[in-house]
Amino acid sequence: QVQLVESGGGLVLPGGSLRLSCAASGRTFSTFAVAWFRQAPGKEREFVAGTGWSGSNTLYADSVKGRFTISRDNAKNTVYLQMNSLKPEDTAVYYCAATQRGLTNSFPRHYDYWGQGTQVTVSS
Predict the structure, then answer these.
(1) How far, in Å, are 6, 37, 70, 91, 92 from residue 44 at the CA level?
(2) Is the pLDDT of residue 46 over 90?
């Protein structure tokens, strides 16, 4: 089994930055695809960004392109989401998800393992 734990969320001003971390335990996941999703109140879960094994492919939602960057440190079993130029509409619970399959995509059903989420609030 794989456990995923997100951290790094919090309250930030519009235009500010946060870095989210997703730490995996139970298995190494250098060959896993990992993605970030988010869910705002009253809305469905939305794909944010994903990376395949060893960064084999990367995807970003149009809403975050140019502002967010996904990266991974396989030696630490950790994936990061650097979020810059944050907007109030980025406010959501952010979830990390992973699959043993090597390529990332934007569909939740592709992912077998999920973290509990971390709250990101962008507000003045």
Answers:
(1) 19, 10, 21, 13, 11
(2) yes
Q: Over 80: is that where the pLDDT of 54 sits?
A: no
Beta strands in 10-91 (DSSP E): 10-12, 18-25, 33-39, 46-51, 58-60, 68-73, 78-83
By CB neighbour count within 10 A (0-12 exposed, 13-18 middle, 19+ buried), where does 108 fall? middle
Give the pLDDT of residue 29. Answer: 74
The two tokens of residue 56 are: 């084999």
Is the pLDDT at 39 greater than 90? The verdict is: yes
Distance (Å, rounded) from C-alpha 64 to C-alpha 33?
19
User: Residue 95 is encoded by which pair of tokens?
Assistant: 């979830």
Residue 77 C-beta-side C-alpha neighbours within 13 Å: 12
